Amino acid sequence: MPRRRLCFPRPLRPLLAVLGLALGMGGHALRGGEASVIIPAGDYRPITRATSDPEAIAVAAFLLDILPITNAEFLAFVTAHPQWRRSRVSPLFADETYLRHWTGDLDPGPAAPADAPVINISWFAARAYARAQTKRLPTLAEWELAAAAGYTTPVGRDEPAFKQDLYTWLSAPTPEVLPSVATARATLHGARGLHGLVWEWVDDFDTAMVTGESRADVATDQNLFCGGAAASATDPGDYAAFMRQALRSSLKARQGTSSLGFRCATDLPPPSDQP
Questions:
Q1: At the topology level of CATH, where does 10-267 sit?
Q2: How does 124-151 read in b/e, with b if 16+ C-beta sit within 10 Å?
Q3: What residue segments make up the domains of the chain, in order of their start?
Q4: Tens of pLDDT along 91-128?
Q5: Closest CA to 146 of 49, 44, 268
């Protein structure tokens, strides 16, 4: 028997979506108690690198949200911070793509289910959301380190089931209505949806094609572009990493897309002194 979808009067939808945060319909309630997982320290190897770059970049352990931010969570944010509503946001911080799939300022509507990842979000808006939660966006190196893990092993690209799911997602068109974040399978470290739901903003996305691992090098290297990228690639077969790099290098901070969301990260607290 087909599942019936409950319909509520439009004025009640924003209130119901916010209440869903507490009732398990969306937002943090879907996160199963703990909202973050520890990503262990490790090394990130950029897919392309300049000759002056180190072979690997050391990444300290950090906390990463288990799930990408949902429409319900972002609705709660814009409700509390009116300057980030679609009709009020400054054009300096978001272009015309901002939340364009929502029905209204406080009504995500049928194209944006409460428990689906929020999309059409600018980098500025994602960063503002993270700061409002006393968190931050993950760095490129942190996100890539977390996303490298498979379902059961630390190196997902060597795991057949993980690799098959990844490339099945990459080859499929973005659905008009995204699925619930709860449908995403957990990786080894417990994060869900790093692949298979949406692309995700990182804090230093605009350094994707710049040398020096975000250390503000002013020089760029021709090996990072065109045919030189393959010649300088650390793993020429990692097609997904090339796609992420291409996407990041094409983005502007004001821009959003129908397949780009985000999640938050936090520094691990320093260890307490033991007697």
A1: paralog of FGE (formylglycine-generating enzyme) (3.90.1580)
A2: bbbbbbbeeeebbbbbbbbbbbbbbbbe
A3: 10-267
A4: 999 999 999 999 999 999 999 999 999 999 999 999 99
A5: 44
Q: pLDDT per residue over 123-163, tens digit each?
A: 999 999 999 999 999 999 999 999 999 999 999 989 999 99
Whole-prediction pTM: 0.78
Q: How far is the C-alpha of 108 from the C-alpha of 18, rounded, in Å?
A: 11
Residue whose entry in the numeric block shows the structure tokens 């072979």: 55
